[in-house]
Structures are given as C-alpha cells and as structure tokens.
Specification:
Chain lengths: ~270, ~260
C-alpha cells in the first residue's frame, strides 16, 4: 500500500515540483506513471523509495516511512533506475552478493528469467551492453519478490523481442501482494501490461484510473470518417484515431491517445 | 526486526564487500607490498648501517601516504549518483553501512599496513644482508622504537600517536561524505584554510596585539607548564575524533540522491 498525503517537494533553488499531492494505491497492481518530460515522474518514484525528503506532507509504503530507509522498508522495495553502473563481477557473483538481503528472493525464478532474456550467468556485468544490463536488473528486481518494484523507463535500451519478453515476465512473475510502478515515455511498450494509469502534470496527479474502467466507459478506435460524438481525435494515416463514449462494448485502451487527449484538456471521469 | 544494527545483516554486508571487491582488495594489497618492498630495498641497498630508529620515517611516511588517501576516498559509492542510488537502497541500516566503511577505511589500515611494512622491511633487510654481508642493518621492530621512549611517557605517547593518526583519518573520512568529487584535495584545502585561520589568530593575538604585554594572561596560557596539559590535549583529540565521526555519520544518514 502506497499512501501520499499532501506531498510538497522542490529541488534546491527551484520552483516547487509537487504541491499538496495526495495518492493512495493498494497492493497487487501494475501502475503506469506517465507524464511529460520534467513532470516529476522520476522524482515521485525517488520520493516513494526514500531517496529524497519531502518538503512537506507524508509518504508511507506498507506503513513504513521511506526516508527513514530502515532495512525493514528497504527489503520490501526494489528500484531499477533508468541509468545505473554495474560492478565488474559476473552475474552469479552479483546474485550471491545481493540476494541474501531480500528474504523472498527466488533463485529459480531468477534463473528462469535470465534464461528467457538469453543472458549468460558467467558474463561480467560491467562489460555488458546497456540493454543487457537493464534486462539483468529487471530480472533481479522481479526475483526479489519485493512488495514494491519500481521500474524507471524499463524498456529504454531493450530490443523489440526483449520488450515482449519484459511484458510477459512482469505479468507472469508477480504475486498478489506486489505492486509494480512503471514510469515510462514509451507507453506502447507497457500498454498491455498496466492495470492503472497515473498521469502527472504540473506537480499534480491529473488522471488516476484503471484500464478496465476506461475500457468499459470509452471506445478507442481508428475510423475513416470523424463521428459526431467524439471526445478527442487525432489524424492518422488510416483516417482518425478517436476516443468516444463506449457503446456497451469494451475496447482496448490506447494509452498514447488517452495521454494526448488528457493533455488536450479532455476530461475522463 | 532490529533496524539499527543486526549482526547477521552486517555479516551479509561484509560478505558482499568481499564478493564484490575481494579481488580489487587483494590486488591493492599486493601493489602496496611491492611498492613498500621496492622503496625499502633502495633504502637498505644504499645504507651500510641502519639503526632501528631509521626505519621510523619510512614507517610513518609510507603508511600515512596509503592510509590517509584511503580514508579520504571512503564511501566510494558517493563518487557517482548511480552508485549512491544503489548504496542508499541496499537493505542495511545506516549504522551497518557506516561501521563497514569505518572498519575498512580507518581501523583495518592500522593492522594491515604495519604488517605489510614489517614483512617488506624484513625482506629488504634480508636481501641487503645477503647481497652486502658486511653491512650492519638492524631490522625494523616497532617495540624497539617504543622502548626508546621514557617508560612514564610511553602510554601517553602511544595514545597520542594513535589519536593523532585517527583524527587525520577521520577528518578525511568525513570529507569523503561531504565532497562527491576529489574529496582528498577538497578536504585538504578546507583543512589548510582552517589551519591558516588558527595560525593567523595566534599571530594576531601574540605578535600584533602583544597579548603577553603588561602581565596579561591569554586564555591558552592555562596549558603552559601544566602537568595536566597532556590530559587536556588527549581530551581535545578524543572530542575532535568523536565530533568528526558523528558528523560523517550524520552526512551518510541524511544522504540523498539529488
């Protein structure tokens, strides 16, 4: 459970990034954190993981205050940042050195994930490509079975087959008490994965809804001619991508279209 | 769960250090041994007579040259944002992470470096005696050096030496928690500035204001010709040591990614 109450935060000598931001998210979800560049997605993730101190307000993760960085809290959270440096050790050595800190670490799952990503356990981490390192970090993160897993731009640097494997992995490796927070610009990569969308803009959460709810209430489709009752439309080589109120059927949510519609001022209830 | 210090978790942290940095550490120790031996070989091969006391400058200079920069680069994760990120999120308490660095960067050199110096000096002595059998070289023996100090002063001498070394290390160690890049140089610059201010202060009050004139007694005169001065100095040194380490702990505890 992640609870944020009236969070305010500003970097030194900069305008406030968040002002009175509140949020409550239960366990067992894959949440997509979306927003424009500089909206504060990474900062919000760093605040949730205790890497930054809020100027005001309170954050709790499973009842723990992140900034205290108690081992009990740190055992429950794993953060895969966008950029990282890996030590000059082989994969198996890294796992030996770190797995013990995570009580629920699943070595069988790790071996399986590494196999799926086609990584060699005897390869030296620092000598791997960025994409390979990222695959390793994602596999390690999922294997920790931490209750909160944070992935910041996880698909950056992954090739096309790996992106598909990534989606399968995240969907398949999670327990009911785990929450995954994914921050990304590349919404297409996580479209079929996430349960919920959080949209951050100007220091506020401007949209917070589940994919199921959206797909029941709205139609996301491509049409050759613009219908009359359209909430939002975009030109498309095949005609128009449109969002309309649902006509009783559910449709697959086009997150990119949704994102653009919200940024255009369309209100989704 | 003990969130302050757990011996099992600390054991895992030690094991992790060994697994991640064991090879680098072994290489560093081997390099130090080779470096010490080469320098001491030059010393023994160029002197037909060496008394035990003559090893002392080498002992102090070589060990300080290694131990002080080593302390100044404590918390290596703080040198980059990415590594700081992983350091802060490693599931161990601040006390455990701090203690590990304290042991590796401050305490361990007091044991490891003298041992390496002793082995290197013995090797250099034996090789010199083998090559120049007529030379008269006394081996390095730390206790033989201490035995030259007056017995009554020995305890204070040893305590003072250890405290002085620890203070130097702890100041540089603290610098490593404050400065991200070039912590050694930046800490030395700050120390230089502080020393400059102190020297300037005494110059002003003694030389310029002529504080001793007209029978006036400055505040520091309490230390002059006082048999308790050594206790005051040791007390000041202990206070300084605790203060610098406490500040370093605070810096690590309050560390953020920004």
């Amino acid at each position: 459970m992640i609870t944020i109450n009236n969070l305010s935060f500003a970097y030194k000598k900069q305008a406030p990034l968040f002002k009175d931001l509140s949020l409550e998210e239960g366990a067992g979800q894959i949440i997509g954190l979306l927003g424009k560049n500089g909206a504060g997605k990474t900062t919000l993730l760093q605040l949730i993981s205790g890497l930054l101190t809020p100027n005001a307000g309170e954050i709790t993760v499973n009842g723990q205050i992140p900034i205290k960085r108690s081992p009990e809290f740190l055992e429950q959270i794993y953060f895969v940042p966008e950029e990282f440096i890996m030590p000059t050790v082989k994969i198996f050595k890294f796992v030996e050195a770190h797995a013990g800190f995570y009580p629920r670490f699943d070595r069988t799952l790790f071996n399986d994930l590494i196999k799926q990503f086609e990584l060699d356990q005897n390869k030296v981490l620092s000598k791997m490509s960025h994409g390979q390192k990222k695959k390793f970090r994602i596999a390690f993160a999922l294997s920790t079975k931490c209750q909160v897993i944070i992935l910041d731009e996880p698909t950056n640097g992954l090739d096309i087959p790996s992106k598909a494997i990534f989606r399968q992995m995240v969907a398949g490796a999670l327990e009911d008490d785990q929450t995954v927070l994914i921050s990304t610009h590349q919404v297409k990569d996580v479209e079929t994965l996430i349960d919920k969308i959080l949209l951050v803009d100007n220091g506020r959460i401007i949209f917070n809804n589940t994919i199921i709810d959206l797909s029941e209430k709205y139609d996301f489709k491509i049409v050759s001619h613009l219908p009359e009752q359209v909430l939002y439309s975009e030109l498309n080589p095949m005609g128009y991508k449109v969002v309309t109120a649902a006509n009783g059927n559910t449709s697959e949510v086009d997150i990119e279209l949704l994102f653009n519609a919200i940024n255009d001022g369309v209100k989704f209830n | 769960m003990n969130n302050t210090f757990n011996i099992n978790r600390f054991g895992k942290l030690l094991k992790q250090q060994y697994q991640l940095a064991g090879k680098t550490l072994a290489l560093a120790l081997a390099s130090i041994f080779i470096g010490y031996t080469l320098i001491l070989l030059i010393f023994t091969f160029n002197n037909a007579y060496i008394a035990t006391m003559e090893w002392l400058p080498f002992f102090i200079i070589l060990n300080s040259a290694i131990a002080l920069p080593f302390a100044a680069y404590a918390f290596p994760a703080f040198r980059s944002k990415e590594k700081t990120f992983d350091f802060l999120l490693l599931p161990c308490s601040v006390t455990e992470k701090f203690t590990l660095n304290l042991i590796i960067r401050i305490i361990a050199p007091w044991i490891v470096l003298p041992v390496i110096f002793y082995i290197s000096s013995r090797l250099a002595t034996e090789l010199a005696l083998w090559y120049f059998p007529q030379s008269n070289i006394e081996g390095f023996r730390l206790w033989a050096i201490f035995s030259q100090i007056d017995h009554d002063d020995l305890f204070f001498a040893i305590v003072s030496i250890i405290l002085t070394g620890l203070i130097h290390q702890s100041v540089l160690f603290t610098g490593a928690t404050v400065f991200r890049k070039q912590p050694l140089i930046k800490t030395l610059l700050i120390l230089g500035a502080v020393a400059g201010i102190i020297i300037f202060y005494f110059y002003i009050i003694i030389g310029w204001v002529e504080i001793y004139k007209n029978g006036r007694i400055p505040w520091f005169a309490v230390f002059e010709n006082n048999e308790n001065t050594v206790y005051y100095l040791i007390g000041v040194e202990i206070a300084l040591l605790i203060t610098t380490l406490a500040y370093a702990f605070y810096r690590v505890k309050e560390k953020e990614i920004a």
